[in-house]
């Protein structure tokens, strides 16, 4: 007995976990831009720049699942359920995330939920905040003279004060802290407690790659004051290490070495 057309389930759609990069639409991958412009359902984070959302298909439905430290528009398990339900009804979905989906973007959790439900998943990497912000601020995360190791850390992770950060920053190393604005005081104190010198240079990069970008510099001990005085808000990244020193300081240092 043949099934009637109405009883045949719709084909399962694909969930595309797409990295939107640090903000500037010019930094999207070609694949990301193509999917944003052609997919009819886009589920996006709050940090995705409006100029990127403007690239969406005119008929696309845009669903914001913005999160902040104090308030989530939609809990993560509900976001997972939304992606799965949409795909099971036959819709392709673009899950649009700032930066890269697999770098502090909870993309792993969403991919697991989709696979568990039998929903195909495709990953479209994006320029993560660390590399995007560093490039925009012209801060090299590695440098042959001063840094051969880079570490990425979440500044709002659970058990922050209990973690051992003693080997993450220091001579020859660069430490990049995501989501650390609200916990800048705890981060500064922890790094100094774990052995980092108070005068290690720090850069705070706000709104990287966007017209309103700011780069603020100071010593590690002054990080909380730097954030508070300039009223730094998310999206912002903290970079710690010698690579963040002002270019003029590096030139003066080089001149002194030449004189010796």
UniProtKB/TrEMBL annotation:
It comes from the Bacteria. The keyword Oxidoreductase does not apply. One of its GO terms (molecular function) is uroporphyrin-III C-methyltransferase activity. SUPFAM superfamilies: Tetrapyrrole methylase. One of its GO terms (biological process) is methylation. Pfam families: TP_methylase. Keywords: Methyltransferase, Porphyrin biosynthesis, S-adenosyl-L-methionine, Transferase. PROSITE patterns: SUMT_1 (PS00839). Pathway: Porphyrin-containing compound metabolism; siroheme biosynthesis; precorrin-2 from uroporphyrinogen III: step 1/1. Its EC number is 2.1.1.107. Residues 14-223 form the Tetrapyrrole methylase domain. PANTHER family: S-ADENOSYL-L-METHIONINE-DEPENDENT UROPORPHYRINOGEN III METHYLTRANSFERASE, CHLOROPLASTIC (PTHR45790:SF3), SIROHEME SYNTHASE-RELATED (PTHR45790). Belongs to the precorrin methyltransferase family. This is uroporphyrinogen-III C-methyltransferase. The gene is cobA.
